[in-house]
Amino acid sequence: MKRYLFFIFLLVLLTGPIYVSALGSIKLNDDWRTASRQSIAIAPRPEVTPEAVVQVYAARAFNWRGIFGVHTWFATKTNGAKNYRVHQVIGWRSWRGLPVVVSKTDIPDRLWYGNRPKILLDVRGEKAGNLIPQIEAAAKSYPYQSDYTVWPGPNSNTFVAWIARQLPELNLELPTTAIGKDYLGGVRLFDRAPSGTGYQLSMFGLLGITVARVEGLEFNALGLNFGIDPFDPAIKLPGVGRIGITGLVFSGSH
Questions:
Q1: Measured between alpha carbons, how far is 238 from 195 in angstroms, rounded to an integer?
Q2: pLDDT band with cut points at 50, 70 and 90 for residue 2
Q3: What are the tens digits of pLDDT across the range 209-246?
Q4: Which of 10, 21, 109, 167 is the least buried, fewest Cβ under 10 Å from its Cβ?
Q5: Per-residue pLDDT tens over the stretch 79-104
Q6: How do beta strands 101-106 and 84-89 pair?
Q7: 61-76 burial string, b = 16+ CB within 10 Å, else e?
Q8: Which helix (H) or strand (E) holds 109?
Q9: What is the DSSP letter of 116?
């Protein structure tokens, strides 16, 4: 009986990823060396946007990982700057013994190896200008500068969630498909939700619960998240993301 219930539990958790895989929108046979990294032109162009900009992006992870989740990153542009800086964790760098945190001048709205990004947060003007030094300081203080684990973390989403927790004024809601956002390390079990509007309990990013005004109620089981948002009515499913009254909000990128 216990084994039967366990398989039912796994099936429920994997229904969303199976659905995403069946859609065929995740390319499983692409070569990362030839996958597109071009801009999709959704970031404000610096030449016509002198004001400071802070944005957070999410795109389906590369290859089979995209069935389950997304990769997230910050992009910032100071007042009058001609270029953006992109702040993210890149896992393959750990294989070469390099720091995984990368903050450098880059194109903010690149395809993530063929997968189209979506903007999760967009802040402009004076507020953005005040946030940028804090974002850069939080990126430098990230506790896993050289550590990377795809599941359950620390990974790229752990990094973005870390910055969000340090700057609760961002009110950043990361999608349920941002696997690793609930990873709090091997010591801490309790912290603010990434949005800063509530709290979460999480055991190694594998089991936990989040209650917050922005995220609503989320449950984490084996690193996969599902939940309900009573304030902006929607359900959240593993692999799929948020389904609101207007339909599938995060299909394609979340």
A1: 19
A2: low
A3: 999 999 999 999 999 999 999 988 999 999 999 998 65
A4: 10
A5: 999 999 999 999 999 999 999 999 99
A6: antiparallel
A7: bbbebbbbbbbbbbbb
A8: none
A9: P
The pLDDT tens digits for 9-55 are: 677 677 888 788 787 778 777 788 899 999 999 999 999 999 999 99
H-assigned helices in the chain: 2-23, 65-68, 125-141, 156-166
Q: Are 84 and 76 in contact (CB under 8 A)?
A: yes
**Distance from C-alpha of 180 to C-alpha of 225, rounded to nearest angstrom:** 10
* 16: phi then psi, degrees, rounded to nearest 5: -60, -55
Is the Cβ–Cβ distance between 121 and 172 less than 8 Å?
yes
Output the six-digit token pair for 93.
Answer: 């760098």
Could you give the CA distance from residue 143 to residue 139 in angstroms, rounded to a whole number?
A: 9
pTM score, two decimals? 0.92
Q: Which residues of 117-149 are buried (b: 16+ CB within 10 A; e: fewer)?
A: bbebbebeeeebbebbeebbebbeebebeebbe
Q: Mark out the alpha helices in 124-254 (DSSP H runs).
A: 125-141, 156-166
Any bridge partners for residue 122, and if so which? 55
Residues 6+ apart with CB under 8 A from 8: none
Between 130 and 244, the more confident residue is 130
Give CA torsion, residues 73, 65, 33, 155, to 10 deg.
Answer: 40
Confidence of residue 248 (pLDDT cuts 50, 70, 90): very low
